[in-house]
Specification:
The structure holds 2 protein chains of 2 kinds.
Chain A (H helix, E strand, L loop, with lengths): L4 E3 L2 E4 L5 E6 L6 E8 L3 E9 L2 E5 L6 E5 L5 E5 L8 E8 L8 E2 L3 E5 L1
Parallel strand pairs in A: 2-11
Antiparallel strand pairs in A: 1-3, 3-8, 4-5, 4-9, 5-6, 7-8, 9-10, 9-11
Chain B lengths: L2 E5 L2 E5 L4 E8 L3 E9 L6 E6 L5 E4 L2 E5 L3 E6 L8 E9 L8 E3 L3 E6 L1
The chains are: A mainly beta, B mainly beta.
Chain lengths: ~110, ~110
């Protein structure tokens, strides 16, 4: 158990809808990272938050947004969903802003039908 | 742009049959190279970090090595429980990306009894 909790484990929705994925980092970790994993693209970095503030952005679509709350949990919001958004979404946490030892959650499997 | 290429995509070994996984990379200044293990339905789990050419790290049956262009993950006398997908990632010195990890697509390893 990595100590990172993601909910829900599975999410099935329709095109055009909006969903929210939730992540609780390990106790004491201030950074939260969101990654998307698909069969053809592999693990793609989306966005990082550190202590409530956006730290870095990767290949995140404008339809996607995230935030980190004062209690350090994070939410990833995906809107106007398309079939191609179906993927496994991982949250990871680390102690600092550039700590490469990431602890990953078990992921949320999103299926857009 | 940073690139990480892993080979082979899939590898099947008999128990006890040693082999190596390859990770070739191009990066504008390497801050670190990382190996993670991912089991089906789970998030990646940290294995090693390598920082400079010539560095080696070991953990049980695994040994990771690093050159200026590639890294190898050597698996000695593997057991069925070593079956997993092994992911390589690089971290650039470029802080504009927040030191985010850039992952390869992984090598899927199956070790049969």
């Amino acid at each position: 158990d990595s100590g990172v909790t993601q909910t829900p484990k599975h999410l099935i929705t329709a095109t055009g809808q909006r969903v929210t994925l939730r992540c609780s980092p390990r106790s004491g970790d201030l950074s939260v990272y969101w990654y998307q994993q698909s069969l053809d693209q592999g693990l793609q970095f989306l966005i990082q938050y550190y202590n409530g503030e956006e730290r870095a952005k990767g290949n995140i679509l404008e339809r996607f947004s995230a935030q980190q709350f004062p209690d350090l949990h994070s939410e990833l919001n995906l809107s106007s969903l398309e079939l191609g958004d179906s993927a496994l979404y991982f949250c990871a946490s680390s102690v600092g802003t550039a700590n490469e030892k990431l602890f990953f959650g078990s992921g949320t499997q999103l299926s857009v039908l | 742009e940073d690139q990480v290429t892993q080979s082979p995509e899939a590898l099947r070994l008999q128990e006890g049959e040693s082999s190596s996984l390859n990770c070739s990379y191009t990066v504008s200044g390497l801050r670190g190279l990382f190996w993670y293990r991912q089991d089906p339905g789970k998030g990646p789990e940290f294995l090693f970090t390598l920082y400079s050419a010539g560095e080696e790290k070991e953990k049980e049956r695994l040994k990771a090595t690093l050159t200026k262009k590639e890294s190898f993950l050597h698996i000695t006398a593997p057991k069925p429980e070593d079956s997993a997908t092994y992911l390589c990632a690089v971290q650039s010195l470029n802080s504009n990306s927040g030191y985010a990890l850039n992952f390869g697509k992984g090598t899927s390893l199956l070790v049969t009894p």
